[in-house]
cellulase (Dendrothele bispora), 380 residues
Amino acid sequence: MYTSLRSKFALLLTSCVAAVSVGAKIIFAGVNESGGEFGSGNLPGQFLVDYDFINQATVDTFVDQEQINLFRVAFLMERMCPLATGLGSTFNETYFSEFEDAVNYITVTKGAYAILDPHNYMRYNDPSAQPNSGSIIGDSSDPNAATTEQFGAFWTELANRFVDNEKVIFGINNEPHDMDTQLIVTNNQAAIDGIRSTGAEQLIIAPGNGFTGGHSWTQTTGSAGNAPSSDFMANLSDPLNNLAIDIHEYLDVDFSGSHDECAQPGPTNLAALTSWLEENNLKAMVTEFGGGNNQNCFDLINEMLQYLADNDVYIGWSAWAAGPFWGTFSSCCGTDTGSLEPGNTNDLGGPNAFETVWPNAMKPNIPVADLKRSGVSSLS
């Protein structure tokens, strides 16, 4: 008998009432797949030359061996929506098909969940020098900027194409920064409205300002002193209440993820965010973090992930980053750390982060028995 996605979602919510009442768990744990945004200076670029989304064997390893249930799959909006037609509902069907194949391998073939990640810093039209190039979406003072309405149309189209895939999660945009915080909320709301207008009921995760850093959630950010994300983000409205906050939290000295040494205590730096989430009855996922190949980082990552598990406002995490094009380069956290891509080495020919950081700091914190394995992506 046919059961609609809406009916499945209603049944899921009913069955989870008891679980929600006693506190959420970490139900998503996984890794970022970075590659669809590569070669951003070459548009549209060539598949398997300038960009790629996943290695299927890598997905196999993480699902079958590491027992994770989440991948965050990056793509570039300028490739999905060509500059000739602009941001909106007209897609490059070749690029979309390549992206869809990757998402379907994760969600249909392997049964895991996939965050759709427009890796654009809430900017569009020039990704060549990310994170700073391109026009801020919705910036009415910039004649070259895509409008908030166009952003909503983009999300309406993308959600409509995945409306029947219950294992996708809609990640509104990667790391907005140095822009008006109220505009981020306005853009986020346009995306939420567009997604829900299609009948899509899956989980949505919304970013804040300051590269959506958890440590700075209640602080001004950027050179212009933009208002804290905490001032506005609770104003977001989702008619299905299936919305979480998207957080990034690196542990090096400047929170950038560019250093091999960790210097930041996650629990202390996330405390204000945690209180804000509790006060506003909201949940969050930490969708980017990482660390170098050293005991200090192992200890601090373990401490942060345990903190997430101990506080029921957090429902998941994904580490940065695996991906088919990293080779011997580091995806974060020092030049010699390497990436989380299985089978690769670091730049010195030694073990990469999949062989060092992952087993020492991330894998021990995967709550295998609690991870969500079926049903519509949701808060519980």
